[in-house]
Amino acid sequence: MAPPCSSALVLPCLLVIAMAALQSAVVFADTVTAKRPLSGSQSALVSKRRKFALGFFQPENSQHWYLGIWYNQISKHTPVWVANRGTPISNPDTSQLTIATDGNMVLLDNSTTAIWSTNISKIASNSTVGVILDTGNLVLADASNTSIIHWQSFDHFGNTWLPGGKLGRNNKLAGVSTRLVAWKARNDPSPGVFSLELDPNGTSQYLLEWSITQQYWTSGNWTGRIFADVPEMTGCYPSSTYTFDYVNGENESESYFVYDLKDESVLTRFFLSEMGQIQFLTWIYAAKDWMPFWSQPKVKCDVYSLCGPFSVCTENALTSCSCLRGFSEQNVGEWLQGDHTSGCRRNVELQCSSNASVMGRTDGFYTMANVRLPSNAESVVVIGNDQCEQACLRSCSCTAYSYNGSCSLWHGDLINLQDVSAISSQGSSTVLIRLAASELSGQKQKNTKNLITIAIVATSVLVLMIAALFFIFRRRMVKQTTRVEGSLIAFTYRDLKSVTKNFSEKLGGGAFGLVFKGSLPDATVVAVKKLEGFRQGEKQFRAEVSTIGNIQHVNLIRLLGFCSEKSRRLLVYEYMPNGSLDKQLFDNKKHVLSWNTRYQIALGIARGLDYLHEKCRDCIIHCDIKPENILLDGSFAPKVADFGLAKLMGRDISRVLTTARGTVGYIAPEWIAGTAVTAKADVFSYGMTLLEIVSGRRNVQGRRRRQEQQDDGGAAADRPFPLVAAGRLVGGGVGGGRREELVSAVVDCRLGGDADMGEVERACRVACWCIQDDENARPAMATVVQVLEGLVEIGVPPIPRSLQFLAELADQSNYLQFFSDLLPSN
């Protein structure tokens, strides 16, 4: 008999053996068994279609090891689930994931101590396997039929909710739910204090909670399409891309939400950050990074106890948390890692607590103005401020008080104190923090009451003076001048003709009309805009103006009054001494805006637009963002101007843009395509404006202007600047010396390279994301604010196709007319 493999069949036999070995490897590439455990010294297990991996890993900037699941086919290591969150592995090489004799999947440290287990009872020994699925779900399944699942990681979420997972509650077992729990810090996956769960009281809304006890944000109930309080969900993806379903288990054992993506090439996840914000993220392959499409709550200081006790949260600061005066960090190491939840502790204990005083001095108070007060105050009935202070001093547990006609006391830890001085003074209050006498200077302690008394007297005098001036002003105005709803003044045309000296001093003009400088009788300098081509009736005009007049934000120009007589329509604004941004960027050769000023201007514009888009009762789309419509006050703080004109004009934008020739270069592609326009059109215009703020020159320039630059020895400007900036970002990355190259290539040469490299890179990335051709790829303005503040990281954007078109068009002297001809005309 011939041997099993004769010489003629050696090669075929070897091929069969090799294929069998390969098949065996594939079978067990995604599976853990008792005989084939996963050790830290081995490669990770990979799901069948190689979407997810299961293995041992170290978080960034961490010395600890964990067993977890991460995306296998993207360049950025992104864990989505961790088994041993609170118990790191001491040595991954001697640790293993295996199937125990009782059928459970266990993680053994040093191959002996079980530090994690699926902990399922009533499983037959040697009958189960562990499998990592292409959904990112790790399952403990029956060895003979893996469709029979005994345990799954989708029932034990970490900080990430993946498509296909059910995030809900058990209707039969109170308090049992599949909730998201944030990491403690960016490099520490142990359970933090922030969590997200479906309302245990039976509604269809999600709750963000601190320590499971304190609710600080709700999604609003499910409408069948979106959550009521998350309207931006409609802008993340079209309904043809994803499905989002709610199963209301009135007659079932559970109620839950589940979402799935119809396009398997799209990677998306809901993620609860260590800062207490829920984020919706999508992987952008071209940028090789995650892109946030929305996050809640938008204001990070609205996250409960984000900064811990005796700390203040400042929304506009890069370091949002800081200790109050007289306090220092409770845990310096945690603060350095970005975890501020431990808060701050007193430097010197209160004298009341020791029933003694130091050299006859007792506790005193430090005054903090322009703050938003915590809500857990105790109200005390007193006559005045002195009695309120004494009420706090009489209680050893009282740590702060506030008096504003009524007395509020805080006992124990002072949590959720917010500094709002950089945002707006509206709604702000003054709080007095109780400190030991040694923490206060003798002079300050001695004069605290006097200062408060003086402040009250000065405020009263100021109010009386303002009232007197207003009375004089009103008397000097003609009788027809009337006050409308809110604080707007209805001027007559004769009034405004007088205050502008017959419209003699022109400040500027645009598509909506000319602007003149004026001075009211009380010496208040104003800017008066004469609207042109405005056909709305007086009643409608007054109603619209009244609405706009009630919109106030530190980065929006303030409307003071208006005039509506027959066909005349005028608006009266506060006066901005430093004029429009374009004058400072392009025409002012004597004064060059510093990089820090430019960056703050960019951030302020973003905040103003975010307010218009998200925080007004009705979303207001500006429709004409450009440097000419950004005004600067005496300290160069930006104010978005003309934001109400889109609303006043009834959104008849085609006519407005047809006459607004200066807007060419800021128009989003959807304008030209004739499709419906959303707030993302403003995002595009903002991105183009941001690039001009960085470079100090126009994005697109005609042949004549380019020749003038060459004659002046400046840049040739042979390509539009947005294409230059995008090319520098995409072309090889921006690390190390690449950042210096980016600064030298894109920042205004007049600054001599004096710019923060990290901020330049951040600004260019934001701008290039904003000008993407697809409006769904552009971030919301709330995200732009968070990125510029350094709270959210974004990747390198792809180069928009429209920029290539601009590059070709820039060589033509008639490109402005070309764009204008594309726009519809009336």
UniProtKB/TrEMBL annotation:
Enzyme class: transferase
Signal sequence interval, chain numbering: 1-29
Organism: Oryza glaberrima (African rice)
Domain of life: Eukaryota
Matches recorded under InterPro entries: Bulb-type_lectin_dom, Bulb-type_lectin_dom_sf, Kinase-like_dom_sf, Pan_app, Prot_kinase_dom, Protein_kinase_ATP_BS, S_locus_glycoprot_dom, Ser/Thr_kinase_AS
Apple domain mapped to chain residues: 352-436
Any Gene Ontology biological process: response to other organism
Domain Bulb-type lectin intervals: 29-153
GO MF: ATP binding; protein serine kinase activity; protein serine/threonine kinase activity
Gene (UniProt): LOC127759958
Positions contributing to ATP binding: 530
Record protein name field: Receptor-like serine/threonine-protein kinase
Cellular-component GO terms for this entry: membrane
Alphabetic keyword roster: ATP-binding, Disulfide bond, EGF-like domain, Glycoprotein, Kinase, Membrane, Nucleotide-binding, Receptor, Serine/threonine-protein kinase, Signal, Transferase, Transmembrane, Transmembrane helix
UniProt cross-references to Pfam families, sorted A to Z: B_lectin, PAN_2, Pkinase, S_locus_glycop
Subcellular compartments: Membrane
Disulfide bond among keywords: yes
Similarity remark: Belongs to the protein kinase superfamily. Ser/Thr protein kinase family.
Ranges where the Protein kinase domain occurs: 501-792
EC assignment: 2.7.11.1
PROSITE patterns per the UniProt record, alphabetical: BULB_LECTIN, PAN, PROTEIN_KINASE_ATP, PROTEIN_KINASE_DOM, PROTEIN_KINASE_ST
Parts of the chain that traverse the membrane: 451-473
Catalyzed reaction equations: L-seryl-[protein] + ATP = O-phospho-L-seryl-[protein] + ADP + H(+); L-threonyl-[protein] + ATP = O-phospho-L-threonyl-[protein] + ADP + H(+)
Membrane topology listed for this record: Single-pass type I membrane protein
Keyword Disulfide bond among record annotations: yes
